[in-house]
């Protein structure tokens, strides 16, 4: 093998010598013919040793290239990472290991220096790889403030074009800073939402280009960042109010800003905040939309202005293209009508809610409660028939949990309560026209049929 290697190097050296003698210039970076020969020879040696997994011998020849021709090719840095990592793993002493780790970090820094402007694998990509190894080798001693400072100017420059791993580490390092310094909270929230928006833009661009691998990659990092953010508990409504509240008056005509604020508040469940209401009002003046109308309606409802709330809930329904959203709004209208004692209207809204949002059990529970609340008024002079109404109440509660398992606990509570109000056997006996197991149509505004059960 050694004989073949020497022969191969000799051939490359002859070619390099003739090239260097005729073309020693700034383009090659070589100062002499000997320079070019040494470059080719040492490159051939280290690549051959590396190919045979002899990283110890590869290192010595690679180091000559790295030290003397750092701007020649990015392969020096790609290969160097592999070579140094193997030497780290096989270091004989802790001191030797630390020396190689330091050198590895330097390889990444020099790659940024000489090849950071690479259009596909530039500074952001290199930093992502560097940080991966930095965290791996430094472990608990890794300085996340340092990581944050490395990435901050890069993310600010490249925005949505930043490498996804670099974006993730920027958001994560900001979170770690928060864990050590509560005063960093507002900055972390801003960092997270900025990065999240960059992920969304990158995903949209990748989808437009049909790049499914990139979409999957960005979405994976985005989901990880979202999970970390949710676990952090940083984005409470008070923090969002503090960050964006002072900007609303100044930017009340800035459509993009208002859309961003409404989206962010919705993502962290702050749709009942004064900030959400203010942003909604401002947004509605620029461009009426379902989300803006919902914000206005929510504020009016909170303030007890039911007429205004109803107006804007209906506006939201007419503007919305989302069936689930429409279902939620119809349910709010049903609750409002229920609170006013307008049961027929409330039931109509509840049925519309379920027609739009499939598997929505809450409106059915509302109907069950309305039937229970009006049993006595439907049959004011007949306590037995009043009790039969509760059979229908139980029917509705059972139907609610059958279509929506999330309401099972509430439905069971209603069932257990009102099944106890069924008429007794002796009560039915006193009504010859009523029999257990018989169909019974409840009168009044209800007008639905149930089966008579007894306790």
3D architecture notes:
- With 455 residues, the chain is mostly helical.
- The chain is 74% helix and 1% strand.
- The chain has a two-stranded antiparallel sheet.
- Helix 14 packs antiparallel against helix 15, helix 15 runs antiparallel to helix 16 and helix 16 packs antiparallel against helix 17.
- The chain is elongated.
- The N terminus is likely disordered.
SSE layout and pairings?
Elements: H1 2-23, H2 33-51, H3 55-68, H4 75-89, H5 94-115, H6 123-138, H7 144-158, H8 164-180, H9 185-208, H10 212-232, H11 237-248, H12 255-267, H13 274-286, H14 290-302, H15 306-319, H16 323-339, H17 343-356, H18 362-378, H19 383-403, H20 408-419, H21 425-429, E1 439-441, E2 449-451
Antiparallel strand pairs: 1-2
Helix pairs in contact: 1-2, 2-3, 3-4, 4-5, 5-6, 6-7, 6-8, 7-8, 8-9, 8-10, 9-10, 9-11, 11-13, 12-13, 13-14, 14-15, 15-16, 16-17, 16-18, 17-18, 18-19, 18-20, 19-20
**β-strand amount:** under 5%
Molecular shape? elongated
How confident is the prediction overall: mean pLDDT?
A: 90
Order of helices and strands: HHHHHHHHHHHHHHHHHHHHHEE
Radius of gyration: 35 Å
Number of helices: 21
Counting DSSP E segments of at least 2 residues, the number of strands comes to: 2
Low-confidence stretches: 1-28
Q: Percentage of helical residues?
A: over 70%
Keywords:
single chain; 455 residues; mainly alpha; two-stranded antiparallel sheet; 21 helices; 74% helix; 1% strand
